[in-house]
Every structure is written in C-alpha cells, then in structure tokens.
Amino acid sequence: MKKGEKTKNLILAQSLQLFSKNGFSGTSVRDLSSSVGLRESAIYNHFSSKKAILAEIFEKFGQSTAGLNLLDDELINMLNKPQKFMQTFSEKLLRKWGDIEEIHFFNLVLKENGTEINGIKISVNSLLEDAQKVWVMIFTEMTNHKFIKKGSPEIFANEFIAPLFFIRMKFLLDEDNIDLKSAIKQANEHTEFFWESIKR
Amino acid sequence: MKKGEKTKNLILAQSLQLFSKNGFSGTSVRDLSSSVGLRESAIYNHFSSKKAILAEIFEKFGQSTAGLNLLDDELINMLNKPQKFMQTFSEKLLRKWGDIEEIHFFNLVLKENGTEINGIKISVNSLLEDAQKVWVMIFTEMTNHKFIKKGSPEIFANEFIAPLFFIRMKFLLDEDNIDLKSAIKQANEHTEFFWESIKR
DNA sequence: ATTATTTGTGAACACTCGTTAAGTTAATCT
DNA sequence: AGATTAACTTAACGAGTGTTCACAAATAAT
Which of B27, B156, B173, B194 has the highest number of chain A CBs within 10 A, making it the mutation to test binding with A? Predict the structure, then answer.
C-alpha cells in the first residue's frame, strides 16, 4: 500500500471517530488533521473538501448495516429451526453492531440525520427500513414452509427487530458504556419471549 | 406578559427548531436572531450565552418524555383491562410524541447525544430508561393483581416499549414525513400482538 | 408627562473556519 | 544513482464565529 493510501485511510478513520463524537459542524479540518499528525492543508491532498470526507465515509460504511451480509449458508440452513436461527442471527448482528466502527457510524447517522450529502439524505429511518425488509423476507419464507404460525410477516418483522434496535441504543451507543454481554443476554431473552408468540 | 418574556420564549422556540434541524454547532447566533427578527446582540439581553439557550431548552422540555404525566385517573382505572390500558396509553403517548415541539426535542437529543450541558450529559439512553422504568412499574402492578400472566416485568416492559420507540423513529422523526395515523395503526397492531403473549 | 428601565441597534473585537498557493521534503520509479 | 512524482508545510485569504460595548429607541413606572 502506497503512503498516500495509508494516510487517506487514517484520515477516514479519524474523521468517522470525530464526526460521530462532535458532529460534522462540530469538527474542524484542523481537528481532523492534528488527530492524524498533519497540518490542515495536507488533508486536501487526499480529499477535495471537508464534505467529501463525510461522503466517502458513507460510501465506505453506509452499506449493509441491515445485516443481510450476515446471512451465510450456515445460517440459511437453520431456517427450519426458527428459534435457533433468530438466536444465532441476533447474536451475530449484535456482535457486528458492537464493533467500534459500527458504533461510531451509528452515532454519526443519528447526529447527521436529515443532512443531505451528494443529494442523498442521511436517514436513521432507512437503517430501520432496511433491517425490516430483510426480516419480512425471512418471516415470509418461514410462514410459507410452516416453520412458524400464520400471521403477518410485516408485524413479525417489526416485533422481532424493534427490541434489537432498542438494545442497540441501550448498550451499543454510548462509547464509554458499551456492554455487549448485556446486549446479547437481553437479545436472547427477547428471542425466547418472541418465539413463544410465533411458534406453531 | 412583558415584552422581554415574550421575545425570550420566541428565541427558545426558534432555537429548539434550528438546533434540532442543524445541530447546536451548525446553528449560529445570527441564524437564531434573524429567525426572530432581531440583531445578534439583542439575544444577549435574554441569555448570557449560546450555550445558556441550549441549557434552558433542556430545562423546559427535558422532563417527562417518558409519559408518566399521561397516567391520569381515567387511565389508572383501566389497569384491570390491560389490553385497553396499553392501547389507550400508547395512543396518548404517540399523540404526544407527534407534537411538533416533541419531535424537535427528540431530534435535538439524537443530534446532541453525548454533549455535556451544565455538567449533565445529554443522552438518548435516559429517554429509553425512563420510559422503561414506568412500564416496569405498570407490569409489576398488573402481575401482582394477576391481570396478566406471570413473568419478568422487565422483559415485558422491554417488549412493549421497544416497538413504540421503533414506531416513533419510523413515523415521528423526519419533520417532512410525519405520519401519526400510521404510527397509531402500527402501535395498535403491536399492542394486539403483544397482548397475546401476556394474557393469562 | 417625565423619568427610569428595559429592549433593541450598529460597530467592533479577537478568534476560528474552510480552502488555496507557493515552496520544501520525502517517497517512488527508471 | 538521479529524475519524477507524491506528500507535506508554511503562510495567507476572506468570510463567519461568539461576544461586548456605547448608544438609541421603546416600554413601563411614577
């Protein structure tokens, strides 16, 4: 890796960290540059503007917070054991959400919710909707194969996902107070409770 | 009401609006003053600093987003009809959350989450925890009187509240896309689904 | 109606902001 | 190795920041 590429990644990483903590407006280019040990002007060798940094952060981290990429073969083969499936999935999801960069990114989305960037609106909403869509698919599949009882997959999806986001906000949001253990514990409690409502 | 008090309230109202949209750092004193038709220096007749405005916003709106104040006698007398109780309460809560000032305040808390103000940390978390505590109380009462089946009131509270916050974020967050009707509809679906899990 | 007080303006302050240009050092290529 | 390109520094720009101060206008009290 060339030197330029290296510092560019460093700038991106530090920007994510600072933007998520102090917000985009609350972070100056001088804050950024000094956090990577450079002068402010050096930033512009790698990015055309401060906004361009934010844009590239969203290009890099913006996809797939929903968890679609967690659906590997091992997991898909569990579809016929819904409780096991949900438990395994939610633990994987929470572990992903517990990653420091994912935490920073979530904080950033909350802080910059509503901001336009390259004509696209940053939106907490779309995070929720993306996650919901995945689970509507999953529950549709499960009802079709009669692995769970009949009912609206949309409602099932809402009821399953909402507590996971709730847990995320409670245990995986405040950087000084991350508690992955409690998060997973409550997610298991949730899955157990939820399973009782949808089993055949 | 004297003139001074009037403009002070105007400044507070406009500040809540602008801070919630552009963030504290993203809003200048000149933005504020011009939004109420004044010069920037006039602001300092009513507030000692920009930060003091933010502090007073949190003093004014910061209490009781949890919904404790919605628990009037009419509602308490419904405790023995849990489904009716939950349905009535959540509709009241969502209507409150659908109020424009409440929407702005929620956006503000999301944006300024983690910021210290007067030594107190602004925190999304405490909003969730406050709401949860209220419902732990309620479900404890309901289990004691055997209005609902046995089980952990903490889990019940999580399972009941999480979807309400989920709904809030989906339908009562983006100012240009408020949909109270859908919010209430989904809350009713949720209550119905949830009721099946906790009825005796 | 006159005075006292409150609320507002206009201009300025010291400082920080994002960004650019010219020149220097360091890394890469042949 | 020397030549070429990439990466960084120093210095500066115009504009915007929060805040202050002397003064003017409007309101409230006598």
Answer: B173
A193 closest CB neighbour out of B21, B155, B186: B155
Q: How confident is the model at residue B64 (pLDDT cuts 50, 70, 90)?
A: low
Residue B56 sits in a domain of what CATH number? Answer: 1.10.10.60
- Whether the beta carbon of A124 falls within 7 A of nucleic chain C: the reply is no
Task: State whether A177 and A141 are in the same domain.
Answer: yes
Q: Is A133 on the interface with B (CB under 8 A)?
A: no
Q: How far apart are CA A199 and CA B1, in angstroms?
A: 61
**Total tally of structural domains belonging to chain B:** 2
What is the pLDDT, as a whole number, of residue B176?
A: 94
What digits encode the pLDDT tens for the residues B145-174? 999 999 999 999 999 999 999 999 999 999
Put simply, the chain A residues between 32 and 61 with a CB less than 8 A from any chain B CB are none
- Residues A105, A164, single domain; the answer is yes
Same domain (yes/no): A35, A86: no
Q: Are residues A28 and A96 in the same domain?
A: no
Range of the domain at B110: 62-198
Q: Does this complex have an ipTM over 0.90?
A: yes
**Cross-chain Cβ contact A163/B165 below 8 Å:** no
Question: What pLDDT score does B150 carry?
Answer: 96
> According to the model, what pLDDT value does residue A179 have?
98
- Whether residues A149 and A105 fall in one domain: yes
Same domain for B56 and B90, yes or no, is no
Give the count of beta carbons closer than 10 Å to the beta carbon of residue A100. 11
pLDDT, tens digit, for every residue of A154-189? 999 999 999 999 999 999 999 999 999 999 999 999
CA(B92)–C1'(D10) in Å?
62
Same-domain check for residues A52 and A83: no
- H runs (alpha helix) in B63-123: 73-76, 82-97, 100-112
Q: Which of residues 6-35 of B touch A (CB under 8 A)?
A: 21-26
Give, as ranges, the nucleotides of chain C with any atom within 7 Å of a protein CB.
Answer: 6-12, 16-22, 27-28
